[in-house]
Amino acid sequence: MIRNLEKILQFLPLGYLYLIILGILKESLCYNQLGINYLNYSSIIDTLIGPISDLTSSLGLTIAVITIIILLVCLNFILHKFYDKKIIQKIVYLKDNTLSEKEIKAHIRNRIYIFVAISLLSFFLGIGWGKGHTIENKIKTGKIEYNRIFKFNSGESKEVFLIGSNSQYCFYTTKTNKNIKIAPIASIEEIEIIRKTTK
User: Fold this and answer.
1) Residues 6 or more apart from 124 whose CB is under 8 A from it?
2) Are 29 and 132 in contact (CB under 8 A)?
3) 190 and 158 Cβ atoms separated by less than 8 Å
4) Which of these, 18, 92, 103, 183, could form a disulfide with 99 (CB 3.0-4.6 Å)?
5) How far is CA 84 from the centre of its chain?
6) Distance between CA 186 and CA 78 in Å, rounded?
7) Helix axes 59-81, 101-141, angle to 10 degrees
8) What is the pLDDT of residues 24-65, one digit of tens each?
């Protein structure tokens, strides 16, 4: 148990680096559809906290990630417990029948790592493309909910649709002009959230 925990801890830095890369790809894919080169407006802090921000951005996403982790742990347990079954060996594409138990389990573990990497890649790219595509369509069709009021240091106020933000910039569009605008966080004195009123 302790040995397995040590192995997991060894992979944590590599796993986090992979999540950082996925976060950059996701944001770039999203904002590129809107004509924004996201990397030009992001800092090293945005890059480092991106994975944590992504995974905790909504309750639904957090639940989805936790569910995926639980399913992968269960899959790992099942594959290792029944490694000697032919159907399991077919699932993990094991063709060499001369391997020892330890080698078979190592092969299964490597296959799970590859599966996790591909799943996360698909997950993040799907979110990035979907978010960018949805926002682009909403802007084109005018189906946008302007639910923020930006109060700038200059005294000017604007009712906006907030596309997104990072540690340095806000990306938004306004009712009077659908063009996407980028404002430094430091230029905004206050952000007011317009709440829906229920009848």
Assistant:
1) 22, 23, 25, 26, 54
2) yes
3) no
4) 103
5) 36
6) 52
7) 160
8) 888 899 999 999 998 899 888 887 787 777 777 777 777 877
Strand order, beta sheet including 169-174: 181-184, 169-174, 157-165, 148-152, 188-193
The model's pTM = 0.75
Total number of residues shown for the chain:
199
- Tens of pLDDT, residues 144-184: 888 899 999 998 999 999 998 888 999 999 988 888 999 99
Count of alpha carbons within 13 Å of 89, Cβ hemisphere only? 14
Q: Which two tokens stand for residue 140?
A: 């084109």
- The dihedral built from the CA positions of residue 175, 179, 184 and 187, taken in this order, carries a sign that is negative
